Amino acid sequence: MLDQVLDVFQIQPDFDLKLMRPNQSLAALSSRLLQELPPVFGQVKPAICLVQGDTTTTFCGALSAFYAGVEIAHVEAGLRTFDLRNPFPEEMNRVLTSRLAALHFAATEGAARNLIREGISPERIEVTGNTGIDAVLMIRDRLESGAHSGLNIALDAGKKLIVVTAHRRESFGSDFENLCRAIARLAEREDVQIVWPVHRNPNVTGPVDSILRGKPNVTLVEPLDYLPFVDLMRRAYLLLTDSGGIQEEAPSLGIPVLVLRHVTERPEAVTAGTVKLVGTDPERILSEATRLLNDAGARENMARQHNPYGDGHAAARIVKRMAAHLGVALADLP
Q1: If one looks up domain 7-15+32-129+312-332 in CATH, what number appears?
Q2: Helix (H, G, I), strand (E, B), or coil: what is residue 103?
Q3: d(CA 319, CA 50)
Q4: Which residues are 71's β-sheet partners?
Q5: How far apart are CA 270 and CA 293, in angstroms?
Q6: Is residue 206 classed as helix, strand or coil in its secondary structure?
Q7: Which of 74, 140, 217, 308 has CB atoms 3.0–4.6 Å from 187's, for a disulfide?
């Protein structure tokens, strides 16, 4: 699932830790990371370790760098729900990573304020926007120019495309079944086509297959590579997701988002009006989706709001600040 992203951006890793196992526990993944990363630090001897996001690899990468005496810079710093169980384990990962980092690259002013409230010096924080927006806009431009081919799923041009993604651990069980039931009821409309790239976790595939497999107007597909998924997003009328990144990316493409979570670490999107929290209650999901499907004006109002997460130049700002921190002239960088 990851190698195809490297191919799109023409990245060749120097190290592959081969960590992934089917349905492995967080403890097992963390253990492997903390075992496999120290030899890499010993060989490379980096001046600084850059970690991105709030995954288990983010925190364990930062912890391994700390143990090795290497400075840490954190991209996408300062996201908070202030609830360690929501999202799980991401809130814990990013809070602990912040305690270890020397540089904090926050996507928004709100994220920067969260860090300052936690006692981090403003001099160590840089508001950059999010690199995910850099990536999605780059791929959008390549798709629109014809430089890349994208989607190979049959879409009905006469129907409104609803794209669904959901895989959050805190929703597994009855909450996940509820959101599947809401999707099933949406699919009863004759004017929609629902496409769901289904995450391979058995906690996702089980309820999705039992509730939605074979339903009219529902297309269940394998997880999509990054490029065709961006193509799918840009064609959507509406996105339903519990993904953090999609809350930022879809508004850059002008697509409204209903968030299948009870809390979000991205309140700026809610304030801006580009996304709306709907949780996992079937009636709420159905009501909000129906409103946007029936009211073109309401849908366009969400689509046209300013995306607070960046302008496509976050990476350049990060490189500039890191170079200054390390005392390296930009012209000297490879």
Answers
A1: 3.40.50.2000
A2: strand
A3: 11
A4: 48
A5: 19
A6: helix
A7: 217
What are the CB-based long-range contacts (under 8 Å, 24+) for 283-290?
Answer: 283/182, 285/179, 285/182, 285/183, 285/186, 285/240, 285/258, 285/260, 286/182, 286/185, 286/186, 288/258, 289/162, 289/182, 289/186, 289/238, 289/240, 289/258, 290/186
Which tokens go with 289? 């989706």
Structural domain boundaries of the chain? 7-15+32-129+312-332, 153-303
How far apart CA 325 and CA 334 sit, in angstroms, is 17
Domain 7-15+32-129+312-332 identical in fold to domain 153-303: yes
Tokens of 182: 């809401």
Q: In angstroms, how far is the first alpha carbon of the chain from the final one?
A: 29
Helices (H), the chain: 3-8, 26-44, 56-67, 90-100, 109-117, 131-145, 174-186, 202-212, 226-235, 244-252, 267-272, 282-294, 296-303, 314-326
3-state secondary structure 278-310: CCCCHHHHHHHHHHHHHCHHHHHHHHCCCCCCC
**CB 81 within 8 Å of CB 255:** no
The alpha carbon dihedral of 72, 73, 74, 77 has a sign of positive
pLDDT in tens, the chain (334 residues): 678 889 888 899 999 999 988 889 999 999 999 999 999 999 999 999 999 999 999 999 999 999 999 999 999 999 999 999 988 999 999 999 999 999 999 999 999 999 999 999 999 999 999 999 999 999 999 998 887 777 888 899 999 999 999 988 888 889 999 999 999 999 999 999 999 999 988 899 999 999 999 999 999 999 998 899 999 999 999 999 998 889 889 888 999 999 999 888 888 889 889 999 999 999 999 999 999 999 999 999 998 888 888 889 999 999 999 999 999 988 776 5
Q: Which residues are catalytic?
A: 54, 76, 90, 167, 169, 199
Strand partners, 73: 50, 103
153-303: CATH number: 3.40.50.2000
